């Protein structure tokens, strides 16, 4: 199996969530790590939460698996 990222979890969007792509094709907007795992399952890739967090096949852009959106703005 290739060690190049197949899955990209893109930086958090302004409105929240992170776009997920597999081989360059958008498969959804995840709001948390469990969403990423479910999207990958639907795409035929079996990862659990721990595997998705550290696998070399998943590239986390703009923050790791614990970062899901911009910090709330202070008034």
Order of helices and strands: EEEHHE
The secondary structure category is alpha+beta
Number of distinct beta strands: 4
Biggest sheet layout: 4 strands, mixed
The percentage of residues in β strands lies in 25-35%
Distance between the termini: 49 Å
Radius of gyration: 12 Å
Considering the chains and any ligands shown, give keywords for the structure.
21% helix; alpha+beta; 4-stranded mixed beta sheet; globular; 75 residues; single chain
Write the layout of secondary structure elements.
Blueprint: E1 7-12, E2 18-22, E3 25-30, H1 33-42, H2 49-54, E4 58-60
Parallel strand pairs: 1-4
Antiparallel strand pairs: 1-2, 2-3
Descriptive report:
By secondary structure, the chain is of the alpha+beta class. The chain has helices at residues 33-42, 49-54, and strands at 7-12, 18-22, 25-30, 58-60. Strands 3-2-1-4 form a four-stranded mixed beta sheet. A hairpin with a 2-residue loop joins β2 and β3. The radius of gyration is 12 Å and the shape is globular. The protein starts with 6 loop residues before the first strand and ends in a 15-residue tail after the last strand. The mean pLDDT is 89.
